[in-house]
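User: hey, got a sec? need Peroxin-7 folded
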Amino acid sequence: PGPLPPLSRNWSHCRCGCPGKGEGRRGGGSREGGRVGDERGARRRRADAADPRSPWLRCGVLPLSAGAPGLRHLPVLRDRGFDWNDGLFDVTWSENNEHVLITCSGDGSLQLWDTAEATGPLQVFKEHTQEVYSVDWSQTRGEQLVVSGSWDQTAKLWDPTVGKSLCTFRGHEGVIYSTIWSPHIPGCFASTSGDQTLRVWDVKTSGVKIVIPAHQAEILSCDWCKYNENLLVTGAVDCSLRGWDLRNIRQPVFELLGHAYAIRRVKFSPFHASLLASCSYDFTVRFWNFSKPNPLLETVEHHTEFTCGLDLSLHSPTQVADCAWDETVKIYNPDCLMIPP
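Assistant: Yep! Here you go:
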């Protein structure tokens, strides 16, 4: 069996599946193949779910601020929070309206918010029968399409102007951890799952185009290369990152090793074709250039608990943001991005 994650200082499972503060225990849910990755076990601990006094309701708050240190060329906005009655797992901005976003939550619903309005959600979409773990807004302008992925093993297609889903995609045999639109091909998205596969879907046919048995472990994250419509990367509980060329899926085009625990998020750079970043339950963020003989460029370890969120700025080629279960967001410029790859 693989290694277990280290003990945190004060972990107990809150009702949204993340370790809240409480008595110490190992975090991350159940263990598949000896490693952390399957978070379903933790989500089933729904203590105090109906109690409005529950301290865990703070996990359903969506705070918004553009005034964080290190964010340049952005107006400073006052903090604003929107409450929801269950844990929020993912968020995606509209490509057409800077004030509109969608979140997804542990009660199986998606929430449409207008940040210019200090009220509740504009609309709630409730069709998934289990937790919704991933949501992504199409990057094709003029196309109001949102895709969601759930632990009910389905992905759903939504138009926020319509009160119900447009289509349901079935085929995964495990919980869906990630759904993400192609930045190149309209109506095409990828998903990863606890069934150890990466799948590529076409909304025009309502079916799967490609199924890739990408890892022998649960796959928690994937991303499309911004410079190659055929290249995706996956990150899994087996601690590896693998690149896949959709024109030849028999074997990965690259494999990156170095993380000690499950990889929670992976992102390609929007500025460099062969550069990507990953974050892991080993508390680190790692930067890679898969075209180099020694692909690991830098390891950043500045969190005290699991690192679970990561993105590379679309506006600055050197700026990165990440977040962790230590309740902090870090915005920084890693050394490896200060030097042209």
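Quick note: Residues 1-59, 64-78 have pLDDT under 50 and may be disordered. Let me know if you need anything else on Peroxin-7.
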